[in-house]
Design goal:
There is one protein chain. Helix content is about 40%, strand content about 20%. By secondary structure, the chain is an alpha/beta fold. The strands form 2 sheets. A 5-stranded parallel sheet has the order 3-2-4-1-5, sandwiched between helices. A 5-stranded mixed sheet has the order 6-7-10-8-9. Helix 6 crosses helix 7 and helix 7 runs antiparallel to helix 8. It is elongated and about 85 Å long. The structure holds S-adenosylmethionine. The site of S-adenosylmethionine has 23 residues, from helix 5, strand 7 and strand 10. It catalyses: cytidine(1402) in 16S rRNA + S-adenosyl-L-methionine = 2'-O-methylcytidine(1402) in 16S rRNA + S-adenosyl-L-homocysteine + H(+).
Length: about 250
């Protein structure tokens, strides 16, 4: 029976394309791609010629019928986005939901994903985290999101683009405070890959003083709120002091 393969592609370094991704792209009959020009470059790099059909945010729901027809006719399909794992802040959700509902098999071909790559090297708590993707492009929307996340204790992870990174940090400081610890992962797997660690205030100052730091693609990881932990440690401290006083 025909299947839909969700194939992860590199987020910068082409060597991150897995052997299984190459085999899958070689095997499938047709590839649905977020931007056919971007995927054509990847296929050319692999020496592959495949029918490429666009599937992006503006035509995704309309494309579903076509994909289902393809699958009914026995065609194996791949879904790729411009970079990284499809559906992760990328098109494909409606498609996968409807293809699953129609009873076809959907096979993930895992690989690069900026959120996971950033988290694995950031040095923030990884046992529990939440991914918020892109916040609003507008300041008011971003502030509303940060407000809702103010007491969130899990590590918070966001995607951001180069022209909004400064505004993003400004709003973060307004709502979460200047002292909140962050990690900014920039240009992962690429030539200028960098991790910046520090308080929100220090990182914004650094960004404003360094135009190179404002270039490229960003994952922002924010240390979770530790209000309860702080409260607990204050109580432990008080108990210790009380103990000492009683002993005196
Ligand atoms: N599907 C992709 C994934 O699996 O990570 C994400 C696609 S989303 C449209 C693009 C955003 O992901 C960028 O604005 C940036 O926040 C993040 N991103 C993608 N590649 C990156 C990289 N090499 N370094 C840092 N962030 C990256």
């Amino acid at each position: 029976k025909a299947s839909l393969y969700c194939v992860a592609t590199p987020i910068g370094n082409l060597a991150d394309l897995t052997e299984r991704a190459i085999k899958t792209l070689t095997m499938v009959d047709k590839i649905y791609a977020e931007d056919t020009r971007v995927s054509l470059r990847l296929l050319t790099h692999l020496g592959l010629q495949k029918p490429l059909v666009s599937l992006h945010d503006h035509n995704e729901t309309a494309r579903v019928a076509q994909v289902l027809t393809d699958l009914e006719q026995g065609l194996n399909l791949a879904l790729v986005s411009d970079a990284g794992t499809p559906l992760i802040s990328d098109p494909g959700y409606h498609l996968v939901k409807d293809v699953a509902a129609a009873g076809f098999r959907i096979i993930p071909i895992p690989g690069a994903c900026a959120v996971v790559a950033a988290l694995s090297a950031a040095g923030l708590a990884t046992d529990r985290f939440i991914f918020e993707g892109f916040l609003s492009a507008k300041s008011a929307g971003r502030r509303a999101s940060f407000t809702a996340l103010k007491t969130e204790e899990r590590t918070l992870i966001f995607y951001e683009s180069s022209h909004r990174i400064a505004g993003f940090l400004e709003d973060l400081i307004t709502v979460l405070g200047a002292e909140r610890e962050l990690v900014i992962a920039r240009e992962l797997t690429k030539l200028y890959e960098s991790f910046y660690r520090g308080t929100a205030e220090a990182l914004l100052a650094r960004l404003q003083g360094d135009s190179d730091m404002q270039k490229g693609e960003f994952v922002v990881l924010v240390k979770g709120a530790n209000a309860i932990l702080e409260q607990a440690s204050v109580e432990v401290e008080a108990a210790t002091v009380l103990q000492i006083l009683l002993e005196e």
